Amino acid sequence: MAMLGETAAIPHAAAPRTPGAVCYRVAGLTKTYRTGRRSARTEVVANDAVDLEIGRGEIFGLLGPNGAGKSTLVRQLTGLLRPDAGSVELLGHDLVRRPEAASRLVAYLGQDSGALDELTVALAIETTARLRAVEPAAARAAREAVVAELGLGDLAERPLKKLSGGQRRLACVATALVGDRPVLVLDEPTTGMDPVARRAVWAAIDRRRAEYGTTVLLVTHNVIEAETVLDRVAVLDEGRVIACDTPGGLKATVGDEVRLDLVWRSDPPMTEPAVAILARDAVRTGRRWTTRMDPGTARELLAAVTSGPAFDVLDDFTLSTPSLEDVYLALGGRHEGLVKG
Ligand SMILES: Nc1ncnc2c1ncn2[C@@H]1O[C@H](COP(=O)(O)OP(=O)(O)OP(=O)(O)O)[C@@H](O)[C@H]1O
């Protein structure tokens, strides 16, 4: 039985943070999209008076369901989208008045890779380094280093457009990492990647913060993995920040309940008292039953279903402490979870 699925273990280095030094200061940030003509005009408030402060050298996560306003927020924090109201200060620069300041300070990885698709992986990385004013010899050295760090050696001479989705994403992460920008803004960096690639990305992010004090703003749906590298997390819902704290601080808000997941091979015996209790309380998704309860009860029920006749039809089980996904649901999120379906 696989207890942790394919989740990759992530090293976590100590942060050489500058206490009190601010990287981003965001206040009252508001953005409304207006589409359609006058008679059929629709408005979507994508960001609604967002306040945030991100410290230098912090790895800061933005979590929230699809459409919560995460990409809209990071595009304003990288000077690519102008807010309707509010302020964004990046390392002392006013990004609303001078958005171009971001282009010297931030390496931004958006959700698309379009512009680089014609280049080989090696050329895309080296060209990006040169565009960031790295000298030719240093750009080649940086290319070699990041190719080795992310395990891209076999793909280096292939054009991005001929790679798989996960391989292309990994190459794009490599382009974000060259040039030693003090701020990395990464919008779902590990989308489509296999566990080995994801692990390499989380390690590379953590290493930059540890060695260079890089500030990292991370949008991700991969909450279980991401929470091991994140210092603090803001949870966004319908354009608003509904919580902001350390992963531990957020998880403390859901108390000490644990989550018990059971996956049945076929119908479990309802005559078993433990199965009957679980059947009453569980949220069912196909053959999976999920329940939350105090640790003592969870241990008793798990012991019962893993020893009696229920065990014959039990395919898999997981007992876990609250995750950031549980925090989101406890905060009143309207959606099934943070993980993209
Ligand atoms: N260019 C646009 N024009 C109109 N509406 C938009 C535009 N871009 C985003 N939206 C809307 O704004 C809201 C926030 O979108 P945004 O892409 O910021 O969410 P997100 O949290 O990044 O979502 P996802 O997790 O799916 O990437 C959504 O309702 C979306 O439909």
Protein traits:
alpha/beta, Rossmann fold, Alpha-Beta Plaits, six-stranded mixed β-sheet, 31% helix, disordered N terminus, disordered C terminus, binds adenosine-5'-triphosphate
CATH class group of the largest domain: Alpha Beta
Q: Which shape, going by the Cα principal axes? A: globular
Low-confidence stretches: 1-16, 336-341
Q: Which range best describes the helical content: under 10%, 10-25%, 25-40%, 40-55%, 55-70% or over 70%?
A: 25-40%
Which structural class is indicated by helix and strand composition?
A: alpha/beta
Q: Calculate the mean pLDDT score and round it.
A: 87
Reading the helices and strands in chain order gives: EEEHEEHEHHHEHEHEEHEHEEHEH
H/I helix tally:
11
> In what order do the strands lie side by side in the largest sheet?
6-7-8-3-9-10
The CATH homologous superfamily of the largest domain is termed P-loop containing nucleotide triphosphate hydrolases
Spatial extent as radius of gyration: 23 Å
- Give a list of the ligands: adenosine-5'-triphosphate
